[in-house]
Structures are given as C-alpha cells and as structure tokens.
Design goal:
By secondary structure, this protein is an alpha+beta fold. The chain has a single domain, classed as Aminopeptidase (3-Layer(aba) Sandwich), CATH 3.40.630. 33% of the residues lie in helices and 31% in strands. It is built from six helices and eight strands. An eight-stranded mixed β-sheet has the order 6-7-5-4-3-2-1-8.
C-alpha cells in the first residue's frame, strides 16, 4: 500500500476532523476552526499538521508541537479505524522524528495517559524510552508515561520504500537548524 506523507491543507479540514472524530475515547479537535488553526502553521512554514494519504484519502493525522527550540513533541494523533494496526501511527511518529531533525532538534517527546498497550509498544519499538512515570496523574487516577526519543543518539528511522515523503524544507526549518547548531 503506497503512502504519501504531506502537509495538511485548509480544504481538507472537514476530512481531517472526521479522522480525529473516529477516535474512540479521545477527541482532540471538536470543530473545523481548531483544525484550520493547526493547518495555518503549515502555511507559515512551521510544519504543524501532517497527514498520511493512502487509497486517495487521509488515513492518519499528527499534530506537531515545539515546546523548546531543541525539543519536538508529537500529539493529537489519529488513524482511521480500518487502517489501524497497519503501521500508520508508527509511520506518523517516524515522520515527526524526521521533520524535527530537519529543524535541528535533538529530542522528540510524547506522553501516554492510561493503559494503551498498542501505543506503549509502538513507542518502545520506535526506540522511545520512558523518561517519567507519573502515577495517579489525572483526575481519574490514570498514570501518565512520558516518552523521549533522542535523535542525536538513535538517528532517523527509515520510512520505507512504499512511502513518499512530501514535506518541503522551509525557511523556518533552515533558520532553526542554524540556531540549534550553536
């Protein structure tokens, strides 16, 4: 199955919202305005919302965050139910690592709240390490796991031959990479 990794577009906001709404217990976006706000970062040169396209439709989405100049963070991930357990989520995180490396970042983080064995295993298989475990961290008493991937130690994971990486290098990326060399 050929997959295209690319920037989300404004005209796809409704389709992207449907992918997010296909999530079972967690709905990170509640309306199209929120999705468009994330897509605006793409237009500004800061890759903020990426999609995976397969079979001529969006099958996975990941929002990227930048808490510090040397750290990138994954978040707000969703995969259509019929495409789950096919490596789409894993590919989204591989792409995030690659994008953050293009910006000169050395570390990628994300967190997992509660029990989700498949996501936990995905992070471990990608080479993420647990940096913190916070017991009873949520109002409902769930544990939060903080994961980290050190690009400078582990490198960039291979995306695979069936993947077309269609993310442009932007001025934002070039400038930040230069700043992060210091």
């Amino acid at each position: 199955m050929r997959k295209i990794v690319r920037l989300a577009k404004f005209e796809e906001a409704d389709e992207i919202l449907k992918v997010y709404q296909s999530g079972e217990d967690f709905l990170p976006y509640t309306d199209v305005k929120e999705v468009k706000k994330s897509i605006k970062g793409n237009a500004d040169g800061k890759v903020s919302l990426i999609v995976i396209e397969s079979d001529n439709k969006i099958v996975g989405v990941l929002k990227l965050h930048r808490p510090q100049s040397h750290i990138g963070k994954g978040g707000k991930v969703a995969v259509l139910p019929e495409y789950r357990n096919q490596g789409i989520g894993k590919l989204l995180y591989k792409v995030a690592i690659k994008i953050f490396d293009m910006e000169g970042r050395r570390k990628v983080t994300d967190s997992l709240v509660g029990d989700n064995p498949s996501v936990f295993k995905m992070f471990e298989n990608l080479g993420f390490e647990i940096e913190a475990t916070m017991r009873k961290h949520t109002p409902g008493g769930k544990t939060l796991y903080q994961f980290a991937y050190h690009i400078d130690e582990k490198g960039i994971p291979d995306l695979g031959e069936e993947v077309k990486f269609n993310i442009p290098i932007t001025e934002y990326m070039k400038d930040l990479k230069q700043k992060n060399k210091k």
